[in-house]
Amino acid sequence: MAAEYATAKEWYKANRHELKKYRGQWIAYTNEGVISGDRDYGKMKDGIPADKPNLSYVIDRIYESEFVEPVRFPGFHV
């Protein structure tokens, strides 16, 4: 059973690590999860279900740089 969140912001905080697969894309999400995603803003908007009220979801951009892995050099430890 999926966790339930009162707000989209709470869902985002709890599931941010899962958004890596949306790097470089626009996404729309609710308190239940991602409802649409695409690199093209217009296509992402078109993918939002018509029965979703405008104020029930959040639109955000997941930038490529948000999930950059740290570079490790052999023999150098911090």
N to C succession of SSEs? HEEHE
Give the end-to-end Cα distance, rounded to a whole number of Å.
40 Å
State the low-pLDDT regions, or none: none
Return the average pLDDT rounded to an integer: 89
Basic shape: elongated
Helical stretch tally: 2
Strand content: 15-25%
What does this structure look like?
There is one protein chain. With 78 residues, this protein is of the alpha+beta class. 18% of the residues lie in helices and 22% in strands. It is built from two helices and three strands, in the order H-E-E-H-E. The protein has helices at residues 8-15, 41-46, and strands at 25-30, 33-38, 58-62. The protein has a three-stranded antiparallel beta sheet with strand order 2-1-3. A hairpin with a 2-residue loop joins strand 1 and strand 2. The longest helix is centred in the N-terminal third of the chain and has 8 residues, at 8-15. It starts with 7 loop residues before the first helix and ends in a 16-residue tail after the last strand. The mean pLDDT is 89.
